[in-house]
Amino acid sequence: MPDRIPVLLVDDDPDLREVTASYVEREADRIAVETAPDADAGLDALADGEFECVVSDYEMPGRDGLAFLAAVRERCPDLPFILFTGRGSEEVASEAISAGVTDYLQKRGGTERYERLANRVVEAVEKRRAEREAEEAVGQFRAVAEGASDAILSVDTDGVIEFANPAVESVFGYEPSELEGEPLTTLMPDRHRNDHLGAVERYLATGERSVDWSDVRFDALHRDGHEVPVSLSYGEFTADGERHFVGVIRDATDRDRHRAFIEHASDVVAVLSRDWRFRYLSPSCERVTGHAPSDLLGERSLDYVHPEDREAVRAAFGELDAEGGPPTAEYRFETADGEYRWLESVGSERIETDATEGYVVTTRDVSERKERERTLARLREWTRDLNYARTTEEAAELAVDAVDDLIDAGLSGIHLRTEEGDRLEPVALGQSVPALFEEQPSYDRDAPPGTRAAMAWDAYRSDESLVVDELSAYEPLDEPSPAESLVLRPIGDHGLFVVSSPEPNEFTDTDVLVAEILTGHLEAAFDRIERESRVERLHDATRTLVRADSRKEIAERAVEAATDVLGFSIVTVRIHDEDAGGLVPMAVSPKAVDLLPERRTYTPDGGSLNWGAFDAGEPRKFDDIRETEALDADTDLRSLLIVPIGDYGTISVGETEPGVFGGVDEYLAGILATAAETAFQAEARTHRLAERTSELERQNDRLEEFAGVVSHDLRNPLEVARGRTELAREECDSDHLAAVERAHGRMTALIDDLLTLAREGDPVTDPDPVDLSRVVGSCWRTVDTRNATLRAGAEGMILADEGRLKQLLENLMRNAIEHGGDDVTVAVGTLPDGFYVADDGPGIDPDRREDVFEAGHTTSQSGTGFGLRIVEQVADAHGWSVRAGASEDGGARFEITGVEFEE
């Protein structure tokens, strides 16, 4: 489809990349997404395909999103680039804006984020397209205005002339401004007017044409009253819903008048033979090239073309009889004084007469245009440097140097408004200023009329440029000045750009345009530098938020940042309190206390603008709350900006003047709100952690109490029972006593394992390097191995608590012997990220492998059921994982992974 928008999406997460592409294409079916997994692949895709927008993640392997943006800007300076990132740092946002990102979005919220992303993509692309179309339209208009030899008129449905090009003067004797706004019948003899009006009325009513619009011939009326035979071709178009007509009118007088026109034309009309020789040249040749036409007749035209341009001319014109559109070439032509001027030639029709055979070529002097193009090219270089200026002073110096280089205006300067707003002080001056001014020029706001200062302040308050060609004759100025030519251009709210020269009539329209373009880029640079400075100071201020101990302290520090750093005067931070049923004021600025009534809780049904912004979860800006039903509409408060702090509350800032908040203020307030939200989240986590820590401490106390009971209150009676059993064995020999003795032994093992479970659960926070092979050997010697065999292959130094590591290994070895028998073989080996303990015993039922770590689970008559639970507990304390499986010999195999080896 012609409205298709190709988009390159770069994200290293394949699932998120796929989801984002699908949602964005669904949200806007105009968008066609191609994806890339990283910045390098994205650059390859840009080299191979055509895209109108790039959407990129920030955190990616290799180049991050900002490095990718820099690489894209080198290739495609104006390609829209949207940073779509899950990292919501104001530092990233600041760096992205400084790097020239088109837009910055966070991957937050539900699927509505994709709708926002799709909307931002469409907006950015349509803006870029509109800018390109506008540039093309301006270029086409200029080409028509400068080059058309035929008269061109546009007329509305009432027959009123809306536009006339300069050529109307040669056909009708009127200047364009004299015809614009006049009825078309002005150019018609009386006898044609009624017929014309009737034909137009019928066409508008029925749509039927009474004549061939491509070639209408009639006698038009010249300004001096004589009639002019003309031929007219015209068409219809619609603009802004209105119908208009445009006509191209050509003087249709006889050949002599046509030749006379050629003789007096500003362009050079020439006839070239097949071998590039001049056969005819109009008189304007001498004005354009300095050569009299007679001096060039018979000369070979290519010999006068600059050697570096000859091949281009030859290629453009070929044999001068090629089919297709008229050939065109720009080249340097040697003038009579030996200099070169830039000319543009357009080939026309072939002519064949008894006297002449050749081709018509129309040529005009385009030296000024080429110079203008070179100036604009250098201007782009200067403005690019402005984009990298880091300070106001650096940007101002660059602008002054640029205007001196581009339009030779060394008597210029940048004057910025002081913080008090009462003076325009110079921050950068041209190199000629010290020589012509006794002291650096500065301008007081309250200077009397007729002074240079008053003129400067009038220009600063204006939205337009003040251009004076001869300052000494300028009536509003009474004070003498070393300058004669002057251009004053306001730099937004920052100050004034003074472009001047000691010579009168020094600046052309192009010079003024260059100064205006440069001023626009300088204003953007000042805005960017100011924004970056505020962001940096805000970043420093918000660092203190996360160190606050309470919500109230967070709110107070947010108010301080809003007033001291961002310069807002009326600030309130509200916190959502469920018990209070709304937004409760937590901190206010001093001016808010003085200016506004006592703050109260804003509830959902109270009609508060604050609650509306909080409930919607999006910022709300009001240029004048007196035009709303705001609760504070009857106070001195006028401008209001409300930014939600996530689910925690709002930050509202206000001023007593209407319409003071712009996009930068909203952006910075958003950064402050994000920082406050992060601080509130940290405070909530800290609070929850403190409660969890307290609960764990209480649990540990209960466990310690349990361990004491088990250790003392159970062991003592058990020891008494064992002693009594020994005494009973001395008095009598009974099989029952052996069973009692075995029960006592099992009870002792249970108590030992329970104590281990109660006391071995704390995390290992300071592990030491441990030789795994040495510990395995030590554990094997400690355990009652009977006739079992150890096959040890474990190697390496691991980071662990040695005592608890032994507890783990001993329990695994006992488990293997208890279930595998006296002659079992136990193998201990190393894994890439841990170790294993395996045996060749009967193994574990696959359906019960997850159950073996449960407390009390055992399949052995002598086991307590706690050994493997202790193994899992020790592994968890180290941050390891343990898994039960089958060994190569069919027995059990326990793998402990996540182990860190010492390098």
UniProtKB/TrEMBL annotation:
<keyword id="KW-0597">Phosphoprotein</keyword>
<dbReference type="InterPro" id="IPR050736">
    <property type="entry name" value="Sensor_HK_Regulatory"/>
</dbReference>
<feature type="domain" description="PAS">
    <location>
        <begin position="254"/>
        <end position="324"/>
    </location>
</feature>
<keyword id="KW-0808">Transferase</keyword>
<dbReference type="InterPro" id="IPR013655">
    <property type="entry name" value="PAS_fold_3"/>
</dbReference>
<dbReference type="InterPro" id="IPR035965">
    <property type="entry name" value="PAS-like_dom_sf"/>
</dbReference>
<dbReference type="Pfam" id="PF00989">
    <property type="entry name" value="PAS"/>
</dbReference>
<dbReference type="Pfam" id="PF02518">
    <property type="entry name" value="HATPase_c"/>
</dbReference>
<keyword id="KW-0902">Two-component regulatory system</keyword>
<dbReference type="InterPro" id="IPR036097">
    <property type="entry name" value="HisK_dim/P_sf"/>
</dbReference>
<feature type="domain" description="Histidine kinase">
    <location>
        <begin position="709"/>
        <end position="897"/>
    </location>
</feature>
<dbReference type="InterPro" id="IPR003661">
    <property type="entry name" value="HisK_dim/P_dom"/>
</dbReference>
<dbReference type="InterPro" id="IPR005467">
    <property type="entry name" value="His_kinase_dom"/>
</dbReference>
<dbReference type="Pfam" id="PF00072">
    <property type="entry name" value="Response_reg"/>
</dbReference>
<dbReference type="InterPro" id="IPR003018">
    <property type="entry name" value="GAF"/>
</dbReference>
<dbReference type="Pfam" id="PF13185">
    <property type="entry name" value="GAF_2"/>
</dbReference>
<dbReference type="InterPro" id="IPR036890">
    <property type="entry name" value="HATPase_C_sf"/>
</dbReference>
<dbReference type="InterPro" id="IPR001610">
    <property type="entry name" value="PAC"/>
</dbReference>
<dbReference type="InterPro" id="IPR001789">
    <property type="entry name" value="Sig_transdc_resp-reg_receiver"/>
</dbReference>
<keyword id="KW-0418">Kinase</keyword>
<dbReference type="InterPro" id="IPR011006">
    <property type="entry name" value="CheY-like_superfamily"/>
</dbReference>
<protein>
    <recommendedName>
        <fullName>histidine kinase</fullName>
        <ecNumber>2.7.13.3</ecNumber>
    </recommendedName>
</protein>
<dbReference type="InterPro" id="IPR000700">
    <property type="entry name" value="PAS-assoc_C"/>
</dbReference>
<dbReference type="GO" id="GO:0006355">
    <property type="term" value="P:regulation of DNA-templated transcription"/>
</dbReference>
<dbReference type="InterPro" id="IPR003594">
    <property type="entry name" value="HATPase_dom"/>
</dbReference>
<feature type="domain" description="PAS">
    <location>
        <begin position="137"/>
        <end position="190"/>
    </location>
</feature>
<dbReference type="Pfam" id="PF00512">
    <property type="entry name" value="HisKA"/>
</dbReference>
<dbReference type="Pfam" id="PF08447">
    <property type="entry name" value="PAS_3"/>
</dbReference>
<dbReference type="InterPro" id="IPR029016">
    <property type="entry name" value="GAF-like_dom_sf"/>
</dbReference>
<feature type="modified residue" description="4-aspartylphosphate">
    <location>
        <position position="57"/>
    </location>
</feature>
<dbReference type="GO" id="GO:0000155">
    <property type="term" value="F:phosphorelay sensor kinase activity"/>
</dbReference>
<feature type="domain" description="PAC">
    <location>
        <begin position="327"/>
        <end position="378"/>
    </location>
</feature>
<dbReference type="InterPro" id="IPR000014">
    <property type="entry name" value="PAS"/>
</dbReference>
<dbReference type="InterPro" id="IPR013767">
    <property type="entry name" value="PAS_fold"/>
</dbReference>
<feature type="domain" description="Response regulatory">
    <location>
        <begin position="6"/>
        <end position="122"/>
    </location>
</feature>
